[in-house]
């Protein structure tokens, strides 16, 4: 049985970062409910008003492809915490994996219900499938996790390629969003959801890169033990946020100056700009997580000290 950690013993950094990530995901997915106007880069509308374009620019620079890598990183960080606490309790690996399987099975069921009943852009199915893979790799050691983060990074870039070139395809929105009634929308979403489930190990494998990175960070309690990692967190925050912002600029410029791709319609160029936007978003996610940990340590309540475990190790005072 998993024992909940008291609120005053939680480290505020991961919780603050999760809040930022969820806000970013919500803002980024607003475009999923817009339809009837041709898409441009990052699923924005080509004929947006001036006010809408200002919002588009802010989202493209600060939110798009930044919120979900941050959430995936923290998802992996949470798996890492659970594994660390499991080891501190002396739990066997098989028992840990069975417990993770139950958790992710519930998440998968919730994700399927969400994808079929409410929203075509559901992410929970992918998180359930890839999260279980991350938990399995977590039991195989640091080197395997690091290799997984590196090997799957190009898959993350594929999503960026799509974001950069989506305006060339003539799309005008998710089909279910423009369905004539709710049941018609369900009829569109249901086969898409089942198709997504079957292909999740392939289509969603890009999530493993930030998840594995987060799991690696959790091994050393990077976002929890701020005093021990303050200098490293400071460097990660500065460089990560800077890279995340600079990497978002080129595709954002295209969004502003040529949303209809009247001058720049070369797929390779737009794809590369999309990959840059996406991959730099992972750096930005690391910077946001590090910055949140520093802010929480400075302004939030101090978590209770971690007490020595029965085996002499430190028992984690954080929870997911």
Question: What would a concise description of this structure say?
Answer:
Keywords: Membrane, Transmembrane, Transmembrane helix. This protein is mainly alpha-helical.
Can you walk me through this structure?
With 320 residues, the chain is mainly alpha-helical. It has one domain (17-299). 67% of the residues lie in helices and 0% in strands. The protein is built from eleven helices and no strands. Helix 1 packs antiparallel against helix 3, helix 5 crosses helix 9 (208-219) and helix 6 packs antiparallel against helix 9. The two termini are 15 Å apart. Mean pLDDT is 89; it is low at 306-320.
Task: Name its key features.
mainly alpha, disordered C terminus, 320 residues, 11 helices
Tally of distinct domains: 1
Number of helices: 11
Backbone structural class: mainly alpha
Terminal residue distance:
15 Å
What's the pLDDT, averaged over the residues?
89
The ordered string of helix (H) and strand (E) elements is HHHHHHHHHHH
Biggest pleated-sheet summary: none
Write down how many β-strands occur, each being a DSSP E stretch of 2 or more residues: 0
Low-confidence stretches: 306-320
Organism: Brachybacterium paraconglomeratum
Keywords: Membrane, Transmembrane, Transmembrane helix
Transmembrane segments: 20-42, 57-79, 100-117, 144-162, 236-257, 269-296
Protein name: DUF418 domain-containing protein
